[in-house]
Each structure stands twice: as structure tokens, then as C-alpha cells.
Amino acid sequence: MNAWKQAGLILSLAAVAGVASAVFHPLRPPWYEVSSAAEMRWGISLDEAREIIVAGDVVWIDARSRANYEADHLPGAILLNPEEWGELVFNSQESLQAAFTRPVIVYCDGDACTRSGEVSELLREQMGLDPVYILQGEWRELRSAVTAE
Fold first, then answer.
1. pLDDT tens, 81-138?
2. What is the pTM of this model?
3. Integer distance in angstroms from the first to the last C-alpha of the chain?
């Protein structure tokens, strides 16, 4: 067998092994495209939020409008929305101090709402908070877990 055939055979076997590893390995990376890296890094599901609630005290940030907040919100949630950012941050300074030692979860009305992403980014960049998670899913489903907290 000449050198070219041997090199071709070795490369073919390596390609088969690589494809098999990529398809069947239990720790393979996900094979899908995400819309934003921040969403992958900071977004949490309802189940992950429940785990954080059980693990300790959470600071809840409601990124919805004032009218929606006043109509209904999670117990103890702080209203911070992009439209009234400066005023609300100023009025919530004492409550936000606790956020430096506890995890922060920002929510708004479901997955289609982009306000929670805007507010979480502002909290990380302007206030230096870390971690600031974005709740993915319906916040009303967490009401019982938060009241039991």
C-alpha cells in the first residue's frame, strides 16, 4: 500500500471517529444556533429559578410598566423599567443594596418581552450587579414558590 492510500485511509477513519463522537458523545455541545449569547448565559427557566429560590434569598426585579406592576407583581419585587430607569433606581437605592449579596432575577410578561433583557443589562453595566438572571417563562407560575420563601 503506498503512502497516499495510507494517508487517505487514516484521514477517513479519523473523520468517521470525529463524526461518531460529535453525534453520540454524552457531553457533546448543543447543535443549535442561539439568538444571543447573553440569553444563553443569563436566561433561566422556571425550574432553575425555583432552585435559586430554594437555595436562598432572591431579589426580584419587575421590568414591566408601572400600571402592570401596580395591578400585580411578585411579593417583594422592585419595579425597574427602562422608561423610568433614573427615577426608579433613585427611589429603590436601599432595596437594591441587598442585590449586591444575593442573586437577582428580572422578569416581565413572558418570553416575547424584551424589557427584562434591557433592565438586566443596565443592572450589570451601570450598577455592577452579578449575577442578574432573566426569567424565561411566565412569572405568575413562581408566585407560590416566592411566597413560601
1. 999 999 999 999 888 887 888 899 999 887 678 888 899 999 999 888 888 999 988 8
2. 0.72
3. 72
CA distance 49 to 115: 18
Amino acid identity for residue 85 in this structure: W
Per the listing, cell 413572558 goes with 110
Q: C-alpha grid cell for residue 98?
A: 441587598
CB-CB contact of 114 with 86 (8 Å) = no
Nearest one of 105, 95, 114, 119 to 51, comparing CA atoms: 105
How many Cβ atoms from other residues are within 10 Å of residue 27's Cβ?
A: 4
Contact 51, 33 (CB under 8 A): no
